[in-house]
Amino acid sequence: MPSVCKVLSEFVASFNFNNIPADVVQKAKMCILDTLGVALLGSTTEAARILNKVIKSLKLPPESTVIGANYKTSYLHAAYANCMEAAYLELDDGHRHAGIHPGCIMIPTALATGEYTNASGKEILEAIILGYEVAIRVGLATGMAQFRRRIDPPATCGIFGAAATAGKLMKLNEDELANALAIAGTQSPLSPSIWYYEPSLTKSLPFAQACYAGIFSALLAKEGFRGPLGIFEGKGGFCETICLPEKYWLDKITYKLGEVWEIRNVYFKFYPSCRWTHSAIDAALEIRKKYGVKSQDIMEIIIKTYSTAAQLITVEPLDDTTARLSIPYTTAVAIIYGDVDVDHFNLATLQNPQVLELARKVKVIDEPTFKDLYPEKRPTTVIVRLKDGSELSSYVEYPFGEPENPPTNEQIQKKFIKLAVKVVGYEKAIEILETVKKIETLRSIDSLTTLLSL
Fold first, then answer.
1. Is there a single domain that holds both residue 431 and residue 392?
2. Which one of 58, 173, 248, 366 is most buried, by most CB atoms within 10 A?
3. pTM of this structure
4. Which runs of consecutive H residues, i.e. helices, occur in 318-376?
């Protein structure tokens, strides 16, 4: 039997854009627009400012655009910077069953590589879709096992998608693509989940490294560098090393490859926080809207959720990253402000006595009856106990943005405009939106990337 690497490389090398279903193409366009909006706003963060200062100081050749900045750099470093910007705010797309965030890795990889190779919009779209498919399928096989080992899987799985995306744009043949994937697997960036709990700016760096190393793997393979083609199934290979003693499912990587398109199952985020907080946020907002509950009337909030989400219990987060990974904090913000927005993770809100007082009243419970429901569902019950003795409750199975509770294309566009206008202004934001809508007609991706710089 051919190795998994070989099966994937044959799929990527041989697949033609004209064979991709129309709804898959449309979903990919939504993913691109969504990622660009998040990256543009992400370019204004402290983390992006520092990273861009460092990269700019390296005086690298101006090959590809850094989103939301006023300079170009090498295409490897542009992909690195743009990925960090797209991932940092926790507004990037994701895949529930795989446990990964493909957009923030595949789209920066494609744009930076494609700008360097002068790719067309159709070639970019094709490479992104194929990269999503590879990364998500590796996540389906290993993501849950990685979570149980406290490894964050977007980067470890995303590097394979990045190698596939870059390799497709570099026009690697089947053997070269197989080696690119194999080389990438030996460089997979391990991402410990310590940033769930301790203040830092590092959360997105492993994602960015996946972009960089994925592109570099494709470059090496193009020049004849060889990798271990049994990287997935072999002894000491990726799956065994990253997953054991937890169980993994190797067959999920190649199951109905080219027939079942996993990008269809990608979700979108409308709150800038970890996806595991979103069911609780939706439920809290429903209670607030339905009953007009005020924080001063609340005695206690009980949140029953699935075990993976139940670990997010930081009550007084010390920075925006740990706040984005806190169910007590985001729930308190939802009830007090009636929304959870980017501005709710600034220092003033983090230190708001009213928010902290309510967050202390939140008790997160690992609900045993939800144990076997995730990742098929994201079940969460929020119970608000008032000082007058009454109780208000709401149950959410799929937060807004999931494939089972999807946004419209217009809602994705509205989210993009809301984020992008803060960086590039309304007229340019509309121009970017219209360009993405017709991306497959672009003779050169420069028509889009030029609009993303300041």
1. no
2. 248
3. 0.97
4. 320-324, 327-337, 347-350, 353-359
